[in-house]
Design goal:
Length: about 70
């Protein structure tokens, strides 16, 4: 749950057409506390890894920029 009340769900999705299975990592950002709609994405494994790297990079930047906790 984020501080604005959104639930973020990450799941594995596999569609299995006979000729070629399709696999994705899904990201579902639900509604916020004000009931504003969220977002949904289906990412390839490479796209999911790229997003994970960016999230970790920016989390580190945010931690270094944040004032020290008391």
């Amino acid at each position: 749950m984020t501080t604005c009340g959104r639930r973020i769900a990450v799941r594995y999705l596999r569609l299995a057409p006979a000729d070629r299975p399709i696999t994705r990592v899904t990201l579902d950002m639900g509604r916020d506390q004000g009931d504003e709609p969220g977002a949904w994405a289906a990412l390839t494994p490479d796209e999911a890894r790229d997003l994970a790297r960016l999230l970790l990079l920016h989390a580190g930047l945010a931690e270094r920029a944040a004032p020290p906790r008391s």
